[in-house]
Amino acid sequence: MDFLSQLFAFFKERKKYWLAPIIIVLLLLGGLIILSSLPAIAPFIYTLF
Amino acid sequence: MYILGISAYYHDSAACLIHNGNIISAAQEERFTRIKHDPRFPIQAIKYCINNSSISFDEIESIVFYDKPLLKFERLLETYLAEAPKGLKSFLMSIPVWLKDKLFLKSTIAKELSTNFDVKKSSVLPKILFTEHHISHSASAFYPSPFKDSAILTIDGVGEWSTTSLSHGSGNNIEIISEIHFPHSLGLLYSAFTYYTGFKVNSGEYKIMGLAPYGEPVYLERIKEHLIDIKEDGSFKLNMDYFNFNSGLTMTNSKFHDLFGGAPRQSETEVTQKEMNIARSIQELTEEIVILLAKNAKLKTNSENLCLAGGVALNCVANGKLLKNNIFKNIWIQPAAGDAGGALGAALFAYHTHFNNARVISEPDAMKGAYLGPQTNSVEIETMAKKYNAKFQKFTDEESLYDLVSDHLINEKVVGWHQGRMEFGPRALGGRSILGDPRSTKMQSIMNLKIKYRESFRPFAPSILIDELQNWFDIDVKSPYMLLVADINDAKKIIETEETEKLFGIDKLKIPRSTIPAITHVDYSARIQTVSKDTNPKYYGLINSFHKKTSCPVLVNTSFNVRGEPIVCTAEDSYKCFMRTEMDVLVIENYIFYKNNQPNYDDKEKWQEKFRLD
After folding, report:
1. Domain B378-610 belongs to what topology?
2. B180-332 belongs to which homologous superfamily?
3. Is the distance from CB of B151 to CB of B303 less than 8 angstroms?
4. Using one digit for the tens of pLDDT, what is the confidence trace for B393-407?
5. Interface mutation vs chain B, best among A5, A19, A32, A47, most B CBs within 10 Å
6. pLDDT in tens, B437-466
7. Which of B36, B189, B560, B590 has its CA 20 to 30 A from that of B181?
């Protein structure tokens, strides 16, 4: 819940509501990743990601 | 009021504890885990900060993270969308990490802390705050500086969106004036050339800087014509047709490689004149942009002072040029200018801005010489000696120790010097250093090849007694954090003959260029550390003893580690490093160890495999 309220505050502050559907879909995917316990390894270059 | 600052999850994770605005302790996680640039949550560093102050979590008012994850995620998504379908591979690799940990940073931090500390419920944890990445850098540069009012420049790879920022600091307030946003980044441009010349991104940048004097700026015009558009105020735009970092898994693309006549150099292959010329070209471009940005900062703020931070502020050659240009009367550079320093900046920003506390200015600055890490005590040294059956001699009188160690240095012995609190930031400043005699013509090669096991072209830095500075170097301001480069005085130079002048590239290295050749780079420059009695009395005492005997107030100072290893932290780290290399003498506090007295050392860890080459 804490995260959702932060996320909503973020959309409001940045006025980027169009990002909402993308983030929600990604969050659902994230749930799948956690449930399936797939390893998550970041790409190697710099701090971009 | 205690505040804990944290930087993590990208590179160089670190923790910093402040008390009523006073910096108490700070350390990088890599020093404890022995993994260079360790990006993981800095549990060990936090434990050190808390234990060092003997406080409990209840006493911490707030925990501050050094950047804003949602803002960074916004940048990632927008970049991927703009580049789609390019970047799919990178997207598929990076997004799961975000969805698993980075996006839910508040709960990740709470989970990490409650698992590792005696905190039963995350609800009793201190309040967790977030600052923007470049604000953290700005705060790390301004608040510890000795200036009431200052322009602040931060330049690095990228934070959330910002890659370069100009701010104005006054009293306890920092006001952002302008920013340059991703993908237009001077740090990433420098890293692209680091990648192209076959060095490791985010650690090989020092090597490019060291390599530059061997080359000529033959590619400078080509870079300006094709890769970057620089405006008069120092702002710039990269031509992204030549780069791959915004959506790919490499820094540069085939168009970039065609422009510079071939594929990137393979790591660990021979460094040719081409790489040297590229290094010189990108170095000169960086200096030009930094100077233009500083001129604009002066114009916009009209301040006499400039504070610098961000990874590019570790480019001490550019800093030296900036100083010579006299744009500002005073310059102060955060010694932990990279992301580790973000932990410190985040904590200070919260204290002064979120909690609105006044700022007390310290002289010469508030960094305590950057000696903010752990100190080794007698019990730890003797326990280590017992474990390895190490033979040592203990001194009670410091003067006798300095006298003996300076004799060893004069006899061209290489000395490991482990004293007092460990340094915060990438430089060893006489707390965890390897020392040598700068007058020796073979010292640079001994130290590079037999002690550090690194490339022979890399220069070493001098530590000099502050009162002797102007007798040896062409600089009149102190440089306590080894962040300024200056030329050696004419009187100390050995002038080139017609024959030696003709030498090119790496051959330049063979010619002694001054009376202290081990620290004189091929362009007669040196990366200077000034040592004062107030901030490091023991190191001062040793150099002073050496000075009295040799009339030379300078020592070679390089970090206490081998290539790829984080700088040593504990007595055990120092002893292991001492035994793995051809170092002759090790001094830990008042204990002295001689290599030829030690029992055989069986290196079970095989450091060549443990520490990946940087």
Report:
1. DHBP synthase (3.90.870)
2. ATPase, nucleotide binding domain (3.30.420.40)
3. yes
4. 999 999 999 999 999
5. A47
6. 999 999 998 998 888 888 888 889 999 999
7. B36
